[in-house]
Amino acid sequence: MSQPEWFDWAQSERKIGDYLQEQDPILFAAVCQLLFDCDPMMIPLVMEPQGYAPEVGSILRILPQCQSEEDVREVLHNVFVQWFSSEFAGGLGQYSEAANKLWALWTSQQSE
What we know:
Blueprint lengths: L4 H19 L1 H14 L14 H10 L6 H16 L1 H4 L6 H15 L2
C-alpha cells in the first residue's frame, strides 16, 4: 500500500524544518512560542510551543521573501491551509496578531 500524496510533502517539509531549526534554534524556538501564544487557529491539541514545529519550518522557509507584515500574514495563513485545510485554517484575519509579532521579530533579527 502506497503512502498518500501529502505524506511525501509533509516529510519533505519536516526535513526542511529540522534543517532550519539546526541553523537557528533560537529563532525557531521563538517562532514556535509566538504561534503557541497567539494560537491563530485556536488549536486546543497543541500543548507546548514545539507542537508548532512542522508549521514553523514551512514559515521560516518562506519568511525571507516577505516585504511587509501583510506578506507575513498571508504566509502564515497559507502555511496553515497547507498543513490543515482551508476549513480548519480559518480566515486571514485570524493571523493578524501573529503576523504583527512575527514581522517585528523578523525585522529586529535582520537589523542585528
